Amino acid sequence: MTVSRVLIANRGEIAVRIIRACQALGIETVLAVSEADRDSLPARLAGRTICIGPPSSTASYLNVKTIVAAASGTGSDAVHPGYGFLAESSELAEACAAQGIVFVGPQAEQIRQMGNKLQARALARQCGVPILPGSEKVHTYDEAATVAEQIGFPVMLKAAAGGGGRGMKIVTEYKDMRQMFTSASAEARAAFGDDTLYLERFIPNARHVEVQLLGDRLGNVIHLGERDCSLQRRHQKLVEEAPAPAMTEPRREEIRQAAVTLARNIGYENAGTVEFIFDQDTGRFYFLEMNTRIQVEHPVSEAISGIDLVQEQFRIARGEALRFSQSDVIFRGHAIECRITAEVPDQGFRPSPGRISEWSPPEGPNIRLDTHCYAGYTVPIYYDSMLAKLIIYGRDRVEAVERMRRALEQFSVSGVGTNLPFLRFVMGHPDFAAGKVNTHLVEELITQMGSARAGAKS
Amino acid sequence: MNNAFGSLSDDEVRQIAELVETLDHSTFDFLQLEIGELKLTIGKGTAPLTSGAIAPVAAVRLPLPAPAAPLPAAPVATPAAAASSPPAAKATAPAQDGTVAIVAPIMGRFYAQSEPGAAPFVTVGAMVRNETTVALIEVMKVFNAVPAGVSGVVTEICVQDAEIIEYGQVMFRVRPTETALADVPIIA
Hints:
By secondary structure, chain A is α+β, with helices and mostly antiparallel strands. Chain A has helices at residues 12-25, 41-45, 64-73, 90-98, 108-115, 117-126, 141-151, 177-192, 249-265, 298-305, 309-317, 397-410, 420-427, 430-433, 441-457; strands at residues 5-8, 28-34, 48-53, 78-80, 102-103, 155-159, 169-171, 197-201, 206-215, 221-233, 236-242, 270-279, 284-291, 334-341, 343-344, 350-351, 354-355, 358-360, 367-371, 378-379, 386-394, 412-414. In chain B, strands 3-4-11-9-6 form a five-stranded antiparallel β-sheet, with no helix packed on it. In chain B, strand 7 and strand 8 form a beta hairpin.
């Protein structure tokens, strides 16, 4: 199976990232662009572009038929979906396979298995991977209330078809159950066209820990360590790091092995990530879900392992065996990633599209910037607000945090509002420096920063 | 001589009315007549280009002459299958030469005719109206009929049959007719 020309069905920094991997491997690139992205940085870097539709992503980047037609029409023998958009569309993987086009990702069936959260949970249980106490599908409020009492409050209501935090509700007390059930169902129906919910115990003092995996067609699966992505705002990650801080070595090994076991069990192919909730009060971890794609935060794993994940994705896609065994993977140092977005922290993280008049990123050793932005670039209104990923490497966490702090100070952007002030606040905060993070820290820090600023003004 | 048409006699007006009625029952869309100082254009919908030609000139809508060139790989769709969710073509603002572009409303494979061996939808010199189908664009075996979105005469075909075309790519250039005839007095 050859991959000599790839259609990249994505935009922004990940399109740039994929193009660079292709250049290193001698693969020709065709970038699918919407009308809004014709003059983007990846459009200039790609071998050629093909305009697939208007700015609206439903008519362009999310259109399976158009993407496949663009691939075959441009003589591409592979499609790389990036992350987001159609990255976890079993329909796209299937349509590519039907046309003899290599989908750079897992098999359609594996995407389907992991895409249904309840099926994924059942699979994890079969593999002996710990799952949170919870339910199967619940259809009525009465069912949900009964299960909730069995699990014990607080519980989390989740959409079976879900993801991205939509249709997710925390219920702390029995009396709130009915109202939360109604609103979670409604949200799930609106977001996914399916209002089926399930319940899980809610862990208040939790960290989000995930394990990076690579699997090949021959059944080899290895991990590239874990990442801590506990710093999230509304279930969107803001800061990620590798390895996960404050975890005992035996626990770290256990969580890595749990992920490998799950992936091996379904013969998982290509890059993937198994997400866990880590309960800091008990030291136990629970399976959350598996992401069947390259993830935004993959660079931190690259930084500590020295392995180019996107290049490996292509090697796996063309049928090659993994080039290294688990013992060949050596982890060294600590890496942190900050997601720089066009959002204004002072104004409730309001999106701030527009023309970037100044773009002065930090430079120097141990600094990596994955971005599609430059001075003069206009951030379109149609897509997500991420501008760049700043990845910093240090010998240990202390050094990495200190370097990140300085790098953020040196990062200067004008023309659009950014979340840089908030990221600086996070990196300078003693709780983060001490590794005292959980999934609620961001909300707390937002409040703290607000009052600190109000204090400074008065 | 006190009718709405000023210098025309009642008899002349009656004759014109008869012409209108005759045209209405015919297969013709337009009639242009020039006799001495008198210039008369009668028609439905958008007016054809007035080329200054003399004597009765009828601009006939399709059918069009068969293509001379052999056609490459062509779609297997029937025209009926082609009509799925026809996107509206966008005609751009006039270029310097006065023509407007008909651009692709979706990305896909361009087909100039409804099926292999059929006559192309349009050729250079053809008269098109807003709703005239000018091409099929195929995306994964779904054939989308593309209406012209402009009225006028095709001056250039910018893409090859069976070529992959981008969203927004110029497919045709059309010299638009100035105004729709139905909107102006029947006597010019």
